Amino acid sequence: MTLSFLSSHYIQSARFGSLSPYIKPYITLVLNKGYKPTTVVGQLRLIARLNRWLLRTDHDLGRLDERVLEHFQKCEQKKRRTAANGARITLQRFLGVLRDARVAPLAEESPAGAVQRVLDQCDRQTAVGRRNHAVLLLLARLGMRGGEVLRLNLEDIDWHNARIIIRASKGPGWTQLPLTAEVGEAIARYLRHDRPRCNCRRVFLRARAPYLALSDTQAITSLVRRALKKAGIESARKGGHLFRHSLATDMLGHGASLNEIGELLRHRSPNSTAVYAKVELTALRPLALSWPGGVQ
């Protein structure tokens, strides 16, 4: 059986419905991968059953994703004995064809992946772009709050010991965060080449005269919104909290303890870390308060 035979025979005889335009690309794909035509026939029968199931359950093709396919596969296993792994591979491969054709939604992007895309899309060819890139790195890599970025003074950066002092919004308290090479290079580049010369001690200033500190957290929120829009990312979170949340979930995924996450984000309560990490409060161990020398 050849490509032309498989395409003409199965598109005409099997009822693929709205999936029909994507059968020939799928056949071409699997034949190029070395699958035998007899094996492809079995895969096409599975896709035909998928089509009938989608019609019966009134599922929209534009919302077809891994969760829908998993539901279909569970229904399949109740009716017949099918090789779970083989069916899963076939369905996932066919979903890839649909995504390439832009008829099925793209796979959900991980929060850490979305943040990196925002950083990559930041324009570092201009002074404003380099300033914004440094701000976004502080939010993304160190989990700083928008207000903490705004209050950062020149003397708060300890270049010799590679650390940043985070001062409390009220009172004399402070904490310290490590100044990573990536963040330090971005800040140094902004300070050396782009920051206007003035008497203001804040690190990040307006790009136009009068050269004053960025006014309030709304400035950070607007900066983040523009960056998200440029990167083509839709998110319910629009401000600096998006980056804190992403940092927490990324750390959790890489094996960091909840204690470590709570310390880095300077949480006073385990409840706060539970929100970011999306874990049950009953599973939390007591978190450390703040770093040595920090707000108690």
- Characterize the main sheet: 3 strands, antiparallel
Strand order of the largest sheet: 1-2-3
Could you name the ranges where pLDDT drops below 50 across 5 or more consecutive residues?
279-296
CATH class of the largest domain: Mainly Alpha
What's the quick description here?
The protein has about 300 residues and is mainly alpha-helical. Helix content is about 55%, strand content about 5%. It has a 3-stranded antiparallel β-sheet with strand order 1-2-3, with no helix packed on it.
If you had to describe this structure to a student in words, what would you say it looks like?
With 296 residues, the chain is mostly helical. It has 2 domains: 3-100; 111-235, hpI Integrase, Chain A, CATH 1.10.443. The protein has 13 helices and 3 strands; from the N terminus they run ααααααααβββααααα. The chain has helices at 3-13, 23-32, 37-56, 66-79, 84-100, 111-121, 127-142, 146-150, 181-193, 217-231, 241-253, 258-264, 270-277; strands at residues 157-158, 163-167, 174-178. It has a 3-stranded antiparallel beta sheet with strand order 1-2-3, with no helix packed on it. The radius of gyration is 26 Å and the shape is elongated. Mean pLDDT is 79; it is low at 279-296.
Topology:
Layout: H1 3-13, H2 23-32, H3 37-56, H4 66-79, H5 84-100, H6 111-121, H7 127-142, H8 146-150, E1 157-158, E2 163-167, E3 174-178, H9 181-193, H10 217-231, H11 241-253, H12 258-264, H13 270-277
Helix pairs in contact: 1-2, 4-5, 6-10, 7-9, 7-11, 11-13
